[in-house]
Please model this.
Amino acid sequence: MRDAVILEARNLTKRYRLGTRDVDALRGVSLQVRRGEFVALMGPSGSGKSTLLQLLGGLDRPTSGEVVLDGEVVSHLSDAEATRLRREKTGFVFQFFNLIPLLDVYENVALPYTIAGVDPRHGDAADRIREVLELVDLQGRERNRPDQLSAGEQQRVALARALVAKPAILLADEPTGNLDYATGGEILDELWHSCDALGQTIVLVTHDARAAAHADRVLVVGDGKIRDEIELGRRSTNRDAGPLIARLAQLGL
Ligand SMILES: Nc1ncnc2c1ncn2[C@@H]1O[C@H](COP(=O)(O)OP(=O)(O)OP(=O)(O)O)[C@@H](O)[C@H]1O
Ligand SMILES: [Mg+2]
Model:
């Protein structure tokens, strides 16, 4: 069911208290993401992209409005239930890879299983870990620690960890922001492959038009709202980012 809505935001607002000042990071955001879709969020620094991604993934709660993730209204859940939903349904990748330095590659990727109390060395868990390590091309590196890997390899570990539990939705916040052009390209290829070949639903926050050009649809965030929507359609192989760059320039981005 490719067209089923898997993630929905209904009129989300988020107000942060900063000392004596209120910051309205989101001012009423509504959006829908369909199963298997690749959506990019772009917009200026401070426009609310990371805040939105955190609310979509249940890492934080909105001030008002609702997030519906795979049929469950996140705001109706207790903290414990929201944590369970987040663990079962979402995978996160961030700009800084957030790996645990003392754990090796295998143990880092296995973390979602370990947290859930499942032995990651045997059975289906071990099969799945092998599968995602292959997906990100890191087989043979299982015993390396993060400091023995390049930045791109570390991000591939983070991606494997985010995908290992087959999340309904993968949320990525500037996953190429700390990588050089070529290495960033590899991560984008992995993301694209997981979407196109494996049907992974993805929401990607990025400043990079080349990254956004992988998406089916680009949502432009400005001052806490969705300001524009650019429908790109399914990317075939190497989409030329030129038209998207031109369009973003028209929007002043
Ligand atoms: N924990 C917080 N406490 C107070 N204000 C915050 C907090 N997190 C974000 N903000 C504010 O909310 C607004 C939106 O921030 P957000 O991090 O969502 O922007 P962004 O679009 O991700 O920016 P960037 O592209 O720089 O990552 C900004 O004004 C920011 O200063
Ligand atoms: Mg951000």
